[in-house]
Amino acid sequence: MTSRHTIVGLAGALAVLGLAGCGAQTSCPPPTKVVAATIQRKMVIYTGKEIHRPGWPKYDPAFWSAPQNSTVTLTIVSHDSGAAPLMMTQDDKVSGTIGGVERIDGKAQSAVDNQNVAHTFTIPATGLNLPIPVAPAGQTVTVVAQVRMPAAGSYSWQCIAPCGTGPMGMAGPMVTPGYMQGTITVTPH
Ligand SMILES: [Cu+2]
User: Fold this and answer.
1) Structure pTM?
2) Is residue 21 in a domain?
3) 87 found inside a domain
4) How many structural domains comprise the chain?
5) CB 3.0–4.6 Å: which of 135, 137, 157, 167 could bond 141 by disulfide?
6) 130 alpha carbon – ligand 1 mean position (Å)
7) What is the DSSP letter of 48?
C-alpha cells in the first residue's frame, strides 16, 4: 500500500510539472523557454581627482558584456561636477530605455537640461542615449536605467558631450577607448 501510494504520488507530481508520459515520445512540446533574468551592471565616471588616475574623465569599466535579450539595470555613478553642454540639444533626451526614462538620484526623468549635461552614455547602433547630469561639487549623481540587450554582437558606446580636451572638447578621452568610449559585448546566452 505504501509503495502504491508513492507511485501515484510521483505520477501526480510529474503531471503537475507537465512531464508525465513524455520520456520516450518525440511529440513532446519543447521545454519552456527560460526567461532571461535582469542583471546588474555598474559604471563609475571618474574625473581623475577621486583616485590615482590621469586627469581625463573616464567611464569604469568601459568594457562589459551581457546576454542577448537580457534586461540590464545599468547604474552610472558620476563624480563629475563639470558641465559639457551638447552641441546637438536633442541629445539631452533619454532614449532607448525601457519606459523611455532614466532615474536620476531616484527620480524618473526623460531628459536633462542641456546646460546641466556632463556626459552621455550613448550606443548609436541601438538608439540608447543616457544624458548624465553634473554632480553636486564634491558629491556624486546616480543615473539608473533599464535597457533591453539587443541581438548578440559587439556594440560601441561613446559619450557625445564635449567633455574632452582640445578647442572643441572632442579630443583626448573622447577618442580614446577606455575613457569616453568603449564596447559592450552582447553574448548569445
Ligand atoms: Cu563625457
Assistant:
1) 0.81
2) no
3) yes
4) 1
5) 135
6) 11
7) S
Cell triple for 93? 533626451
**What is the whole-number distance in angstroms between the Cα of residue 83 and the centre of ligand 1?**
10
Residue partners of 119: CB distance under 8 A and separation at least 6: 45, 57, 59, 78, 80, 84, 131, 132, 159, 161, 163, 180
CATH number of domain containing 69: 2.60.40.420
> Would 17 be classed as within a structural domain?
no
Buried/exposed code over 22-46 (b: 16+ C-beta within 10 A; e: otherwise): eeeeeeeeeeeeeebeeeeeebbbb
- Nearest residue to 96 via CA among 145, 47, 57, 165: 145
Q: Residue 56 Cα, ligand 1 centroid: separation in angstroms?
A: 9
96 inside domain: yes
Residue recorded with cell 508525465: 20
CA distances from 182 to 7, 18, 34, 84 (A): 58, 45, 30, 19
pLDDT tens per residue across all 189 residues of the chain: 444 444 444 444 444 444 444 555 556 666 666 556 799 999 999 998 888 778 899 999 999 999 999 999 999 999 999 999 999 888 999 999 999 999 999 999 999 999 999 999 999 999 999 999 999 999 999 999 999 999 999 999 999 999 999 999 999 999 999 999 999 999 997
Instruction: Compute, in angstroms, the gap from residue 155 CA to the centroid of ligand 1.
Output: 18
Rounded CA gap, 120 and 130, in Å? Answer: 5
